[in-house]
Amino acid sequence: MNDRDLIKSVLTEVLAILNFSTEIECKQEEETLIINVKTPEASFLIGPKGENLFALQYLLKLIVNKKSDNADNLFILDVNDYRSNRTKLLRELAANIADEACLERRDKELQPMSSFERRVIHVALAERGNVSTESVGFGELRRVVIKPV
After folding, report:
1. pLDDT band for position 49 (50/70/90)?
2. How far is CA 46 from CA 83, 98, 127, in A?
């Protein structure tokens, strides 16, 4: 069984145990496998701020890595395109806040975010020469500050 089939099989088994009715779509993007679970019960799998989704992906990676010879299974778990839509929204937010920071010539502090969301902001603004980003705070209060250069 190849890694893609193994990941899909383990995920199907976990979701069946949790009694979710789902359809699983897989697509390859460069070296990363994107697994999108389609379900009418998405809110339960996503959870507040995507916490359940991140926990499910972590659990899935642990199980798959234990069953696979390849310890570097690169995959991202998504539910009803939540993660991809959230990424697009965060990129737009980053660009808008960066423009504001430059226009007003002052630092802009974003709301607390998960590490996934903070990383999206940092990556989205990494190529811009007119702003820099920094994560500040601890734990659940960690957030990104966008600074004009």
Report:
1. confident
2. 9, 28, 30
In the chain, domain spans: 3-80, 85-148
**Architecture in CATH of 3-80:** 2-Layer Sandwich (3.30)
Contact call for residues 61 and 73 (beta carbons, < 8 A): yes
CA angle 138–143–147, rounded 5-degree value: 125
Q: For residue 30, what are the contacts with CB-CB under 8 A and spacing of at least 6?
A: none
CA dist., res. 10 & res. 58, Å (int): 13
- The class (CATH top level) of 85-148 is alpha beta
Dump pLDDT digits (tens) for 2-38: 778 888 999 999 999 989 889 999 998 888 889 999 9
Is the distance from CB of 7 to CB of 75 less than 8 angstroms? yes
pTM over 0.85: no
And the tokens for 30?
A: 């460069």
Nearest to 81 by CA among 146, 23, 148: 23
